[in-house]
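Sample intake sheet
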Amino acid sequence: MSDRSDLTVGLVVPIVDKDGVVIDSVQASLTDSDLATLSDRIVTRVREHGGRGVLIDVSGVDVLDSYAVYTLTKVAEMVRRYGTRTVIVGIHPDVASAMAQAGLTLSHINTAPNLEEGVEALQSKREALGDSPPAGS
């Protein structure tokens, strides 16, 4: 199931639901208002439709400030209440370095270098929790 039209913040942040995984690809640095809207839409999507996981791709972002890190952390905490795991993917090394220098961490959120490894991280987390999909799924 793919649905971009009803879950788009401007034309910057398309949200796609693919096989029960909500995928959000952030294409540029977002304002605080954009981040709040993004958070609301992801949490609403998971609350209303469930989901095996949330992948947030930040490869198009050149800086993650304290509010962005706070928002990503809160999104992960909120969707976890619905049994859904979050993986942040695509953090560039320069962004990670700047975050570390500023003392910002995503310590309670799984991260992966790209979408493919993010999907694998969600799958391995499900298996570790004994929540594997039925054979043949």
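Comment: Residues 59 and 90 are 4 Å apart (CA to CA). The mean pLDDT is 83.
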